[in-house]
Design goal:
Blueprint: H1 23-50, H2 58-81
Helix pairs in contact: 1-2
């Protein structure tokens, strides 16, 4: 006699048929996470460089936002792969 009273349990994962699970989706998600990390790095670098020493060159103002834009582009590429 079964302790479940003849009830069958199943752990079945049924993904959305419109969005099948593929390697492209996995890599897109990983690229998105990597891009978000670059965005956080760009924002942090922008804040640190702006609040730094008073005697700065123009490159000190530009490098943070450039890294931020690169991170946004990588994140967009990851979203497009999803």
């Amino acid at each position: 006699m079964s302790t479940l009273g003849h009830m069958a349990l199943a752990a079945v994962f049924t993904p959305n048929p419109d969005h099948p699970l593929t390697w492209t989706g996995l890599f897109g998600f990983l690229i998105l996470i990597f891009g978000v990390g670059i965005v956080v790095l760009g924002v942090g670098l922008s804040v640190v460089l702006v609040r730094g020493v008073e005697d700065r060159k123009w490159g000190d103002y530009v490098i943070g936002p450039v890294i931020l834009v690169i991170g946004l582009a990588v994140s967009y590429g990851g979203v497009r792969l999803l």
